[in-house]
Design brief:
Blueprint lengths: L11 E5 L8 E8 L16 E5 L6 H4 L2 H9 L2 E5 L20 H16 L4 H4 L3 E5 L1 H12 L6 E5 L7 H16 L2 H5 L6 H12 L20 E6 L8 H9 L4 E5 L6 H4 L1 H13 L3
Parallel strand pairs: 3-4, 3-5, 5-6, 6-7, 7-8
Antiparallel strand pairs: 1-2, 2-4
Helix pairs in contact: 2-11, 3-5
């Protein structure tokens, strides 16, 4: 069932060609900071780029104003986009199930293809920071591992490195809420096809085949600066998620936030911005 997600005046769309992992895609994206893009959506500024990767049920609109506030703090341009299946990007066909390695597909194929379409060359990518939350945090880690020279650094906020029982239980509870409360109506404001968005995410996380999913060993190829952040009250994962990262990326730095749940950009935005700004400033 299609929904009336609102298209904003500042959203643009990029058409990506089909590959072995996906068909043709239309990706909703937006540049942040007025001087960063012209009226066609092309970048014009020479400031470094921060690319934002949203959570499993996220979209451009669901970020709200946090990416803008962080970009202002960092003095960077920002690129936010809705991943396939979310926001106003191409919906997931209802009969299609995300594969177990769907996050690897996003990091290996989708993000690089979007950067190509937006004419973001290797020189700019080497100055680019990739910042992701939840599933987007996992994709940020995978991008840094799969393209170790095509970024300046990465920030992973509440990433999933492997599957924990607490994650599965919380996601199962979210399915119950989606089907019995007004959660579906709330999410419909942010997605052109809310059922496609929700069940694409929910079905793969509750798939028994996904229980063995782990990206821990893949992280060993990360060479650029890496910051991982998590709240102590995260109900989608324990601190074991980010504590695992330095076992494979010894130079990774960790920040653990008190009185903070799964979404630090909503629960503790000032502390989150401070931690990211302090980290990034060491490498600017």
């Amino acid at each position: 069932m299609q929904n009336a997600a609102v298209e904003t005046p500042t959203s643009h769309f990029a058409d990506l060609p089909a590959t072995a992992s996906h068909g043709p895609l239309r990706i909703e994206y937006r540049w942040l900071n007025d001087e960063a893009a012209d009226t066609t959506g092309n970048a014009t500024s020479h400031a470094p780029i921060a690319v934002f990767l949203h959570e499993g049920l996220g979209s451009i609109a669901m970020w709200r104003d946090w990416p803008q506030s962080l970009c202002e703090r960092l003095g960077m341009r920002g690129l936010v986009y809705s991943r396939p299946g979310y926001g106003l990007s191409t919906p997931r066909p209802h009969h299609v199930k995300w594969p177990v390695d769907f996050m690897s597909d996003q990091a290996r194929d989708i993000l690089p293809a979007l950067l190509d379409e937006l004419d973001i060359g290797l020189h700019e990518r080497r100055r680019m920071w990739v910042i992701g939350h939840s599933d987007g945090g996992s994709i940020a880690l995978l991008y840094a591992a799969l393209h170790p020279d095509a970024l300046a650094g990465a920030v992973a906020i509440a990433p999933h490195v492997f599957v924990e029982e607490i994650s599965v239980q919380s996601i199962a509870q979210t399915k119950l809420l989606y089907e019995t409360t007004d959660l579906r109506d709330k999410l419909a404001r942010y997605h052109a096809d809310v059922d496609s968005a929700f069940y694409g995410w929910n079905d793969i996380w509750l798939n028994p085949a996904f229980r063995d999913w782990s990206i821990a060993q893949q992280l060993a190829t990360i060479r650029k600066p890496l910051l991982a952040i998590q709240g102590h009250d995260d109900n989608y994962g324990t601190m074991a998620q980010i504590d695992t990262i330095p076992e494979y990326v010894p130079h990774a730095q960790l920040v653990k936030l008190d009185a903070c749940g799964h979404s630090p950009h909503r629960d503790a935005p000032d502390r989150l911005n401070e931690a990211i700004a302090a980290f990034v400033s060491r490498y600017r």
